[in-house]
């Protein structure tokens, strides 16, 4: 018990001594060299408030009117294909260019045109002619839709008589610039009938004129799909049929068809794109074909819907 009391007293003495020394140290620190108390120290400045986070951009709800630029990559033959779209949008009728730089092919640019449906939120682009330079590469198209603010879809190339398959793969592009308001739905005054329609007429590129016919199924919002059959040169001579999918703008009448694979036993030529306009007054669908090396002369795709 005495030992306990001794340890307690010793601990109390040490504690008091420490407090006294600490107090003296504080007093010494607060005194000037002549022994006078130091002036109160200036208060530390308050920290500046954290900047408020910038609001996240609003979700893109349509293709901007006017000029917009999109950048991303598509898959071609299983390899990434970096690409940039520059599009000029007028109520859903599209023109523009595609730029790329893909080793070892190199850099190049070519024209495109196409159709945007603001109701279906779908886009189809058909390649035009080379801008600069003409490189050893098939011109590619695109079909897809707007998903979570991105244009997501498929690169489109060509099936042929020797290889009835497509090498284009999936991909997407993000909006880089584009301040225009999204394209409005419009009045639908130039819409294809809903359901299946058949057409017949002629087509021509740089060779002979050929007879052509086909069917298109329109969902009423802008998605179209069907088949296209052409003859050599008439439909009763070696007809060949391939699948098509595309986009239709019911207000402008624009129709852009992208090629799929052949569904007939006869397929001597490469498939092709079609880009044109539907006129409900005449039932005509007039435009031009687009091949792997460039655009055919304007106005030589001339068909009429029944």
Description:
The protein has 306 residues and is mainly beta. The chain folds into two domains: 66-177, Beta Barrel (Lipocalin), CATH 2.40.128.120; 195-305, Lipocalin (Beta Barrel), CATH 2.40.128. It has one helix spanning 2-29, and strands at 66-76, 79-90, 93-102, 106-117, 122-132, 141-147, 150-156, 168-177, 195-203, 210-218, 223-230, 240-248, 254-262, 273-279, 284-291, 294-295, 301-305.
Give the structure's gist in a few sentences:
This protein has 306 residues and is mainly beta. It contains one helix and 17 strands. Strands 1-2-3-4-5-6-7-8 form an eight-stranded antiparallel barrel.
* CATH architecture label name of the largest domain: Beta Barrel
The CATH topology label of the largest domain is Lipocalin
Distance between the termini: 117 Å
Q: From N to C, what is the helix and strand string?
A: HEEEEEEEEEEEEEEEEE
Number of strands: 17
In order across it, which strands form the biggest sheet?
1-2-3-4-5-6-7-8
Which helices and strands appear, and what pairs or packs with what?
Layout (H helix, E strand, L loop, with lengths): L1 H28 L36 E11 L2 E12 L2 E10 L3 E12 L4 E11 L8 E7 L2 E7 L11 E10 L17 E9 L6 E9 L4 E8 L9 E9 L5 E9 L10 E7 L4 E8 L2 E2 L5 E5 L1
Antiparallel strand pairs: 1-2, 1-8, 2-3, 3-4, 4-5, 5-6, 6-7, 7-8, 9-10, 9-17, 10-11, 11-12, 12-13, 13-14, 14-15, 15-16, 15-17
């Amino acid at each position: 018990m005495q030992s306990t009391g001794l340890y307690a007293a010793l601990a109390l003495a040490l504690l008091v001594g420490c407090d006294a020394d600490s107090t003296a140290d504080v007093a010494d620190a607060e005194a000037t060299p002549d022994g006078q108390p130091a002036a109160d120290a200036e208060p530390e400045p308050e920290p500046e408030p954290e900047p408020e986070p910038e609001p996240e951009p609003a979700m893109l709800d349509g293709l901007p009117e006017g000029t917009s630029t999109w950048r991303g990559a598509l898959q071609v033959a299983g390899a990434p294909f970096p690409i940039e779209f520059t599009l000029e949008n007028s109520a859903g009728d599209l023109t523009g260019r595609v730029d790329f730089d893909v080793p070892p092919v190199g850099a190049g640019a070519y024209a495109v045109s196409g159709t945007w449906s603001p109701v279906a939120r779908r886009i189809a682009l058909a390649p035009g002619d080379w801008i600069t330079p003409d490189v050893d590469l098939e011109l590619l198209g695109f079909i897809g839709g707007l998903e979570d603010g991105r244009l997501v879809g498929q690169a489109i190339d060509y099936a042929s008589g020797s290889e009835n398959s497509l090498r284009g793969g999936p991909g997407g592009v993000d909006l880089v610039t584009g301040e225009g308001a999204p394209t409005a739905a419009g009045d639908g005054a130039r819409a294809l009938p809903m359901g299946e329609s058949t057409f017949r007429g002629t087509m021509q590129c740089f060779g002979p004129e050929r007879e052509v016919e086909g069917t298109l199924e329109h969902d009423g919002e802008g998605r179209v799909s069907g088949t296209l059959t052409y003859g050599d040169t008439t439909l009763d001579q070696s007809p060949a049929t391939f699948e098509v999918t595309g986009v239709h703008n019911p207000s402008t009448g624009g129709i852009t068809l992208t090629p799929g694979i052949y569904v007939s036993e006869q397929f001597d030529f490469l498939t092709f794109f079609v880009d044109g306009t539907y006129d409900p007054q005449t039932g005509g669908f007039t435009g031009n074909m687009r091949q792997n090396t460039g655009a055919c002369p304007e106005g030589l795709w001339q068909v009429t819907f029944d």
